[in-house]
């Protein structure tokens, strides 16, 4: 790999997905792109990278971006963001709205475990909130991830990561050596391809946004831009979940942390008040 | 320190499970089959039991039914750990009082997550 190849790859990734390739990522590039090089018929990763630089092959660039982004996820990941949703946020929003749709957006849903975890939680909470319908929008930049998410088909390893066995029995069926989530839950989620670098207005109004472990890959300007767009989409009494290692502090004052709830953010009073006056 | 009884006819599996459980601060006892496990429980009820299904002499589900009839036999938290991975087996295990179910192959991460799920950690 030449420094020029790596530089070009870094620029392509940043432009297409916001992903910042840190220094000394030769190992990461090698391990993520080897399968792509093999699949696309290149002798090695270096050959793939130089082809990427000399030819403008849209399909190849998409595969490379896809492979370089991290899609690590599992059911009920970190637990707290789901416990908090069930014990605090859902009851509070249900009380405020009385009936109708509660809109939840999983902004980087990867292979679907996060939105499906929410759908399973809602299925459990439904008797308590019979007049509330959870409208889940799940978006991701990767076609491959969305395809898997939509199919709702998981390996034995994946269904054992974070998913209590009683929920697996209730919502999954065995298909050969894989496990498929029920059609009911699959149809309760709208999956859509979306790049967070784009204009996000098409997403529409949301009550709760899950954007976990995505912003860590962006530079500070991109983080700020994404967060501020999310603030304009979020209802004034809505909330935002970030990953455990992420924060808004030092990036934007559109949000502030919710005291005592790690990873949970609400709109800052100043912007929330403006919104309240506007809707009043 | 909580105790966990590992019931499996494979010495290798018992060894792997022991290493994971000791790292999670469990005191580990071992049994080669259901009958041995029952004998061990009569002497001392463990807090948790990691239980294989298919074993010689007495299989896991027969052991679980017998255990629940013992004095204090309702107390241990039972987690199946078996290659049986169809819904019929899983449902039967839950009906007989197992709390969680691990489908082999498993690793430390899965075992830790399942034990945490049932409040053992």
From TrEMBL, chain A:
Name of the protein this chain belongs to: protein-glutamate O-methyltransferase
Keyword S-adenosyl-L-methionine: yes
Pfam families: CheR (PF01739), CheR_N (PF03705)
InterPro entries: Bact_Chemotaxis_MeTrfase, CheR_C, CheR_MeTrfase, CheR_N, CheR_N_sf, SAM-dependent_MTases_sf
Top-rank EC class of the record's enzyme: transferase
GO molecular function, one term: protein-glutamate O-methyltransferase activity
Domain CheR-type methyltransferase: 1-268
Classification via PANTHER family: CHEMOTAXIS PROTEIN METHYLTRANSFERASE, CHEMOTAXIS PROTEIN METHYLTRANSFERASE 1
Catalytic activity field: L-glutamyl-[protein] + S-adenosyl-L-methionine = [protein]-L-glutamate 5-O-methyl ester + S-adenosyl-L-homocysteine
Organism for this UniProt entry: Asticcacaulis benevestitus DSM 16100 = ATCC BAA-896
Gene3D superfamilies associated with the record: Chemotaxis receptor methyltransferase CheR, N-terminal domain, Vaccinia Virus protein VP39
GO biological process: methylation
UniProt keyword terms in alphabetical order: Methyltransferase, S-adenosyl-L-methionine, Transferase
Keyword Lyase part of the UniProt annotation: no
EC number assigned by the record: 2.1.1.80
Classification lineage: Bacteria, Pseudomonadati, Pseudomonadota, Alphaproteobacteria, Caulobacterales
Coiled coil: none
UniProtKB/TrEMBL annotation, chain B:
PROSITE patterns according to UniProt: RESPONSE_REGULATORY
Domain Response regulatory per the UniProt entry, residue ranges: 3-119
Keyword presence, Phosphoprotein: yes
Keyword terms: Phosphoprotein
Keyword tRNA processing: no
Chain positions found as 4-aspartylphosphate: 52
GO annotation terms (biological process): phosphorelay signal transduction system
InterPro entries: CheY-like_superfamily, Sig_transdc_resp-reg_receiver, ST_Response_Regulator
Gene3D superfamilies to which the protein is assigned, alphabetical: 3.40.50.2300
Protein name as it appears in the record: Chemotaxis protein CheY
Organism: Asticcacaulis benevestitus DSM 16100 = ATCC BAA-896
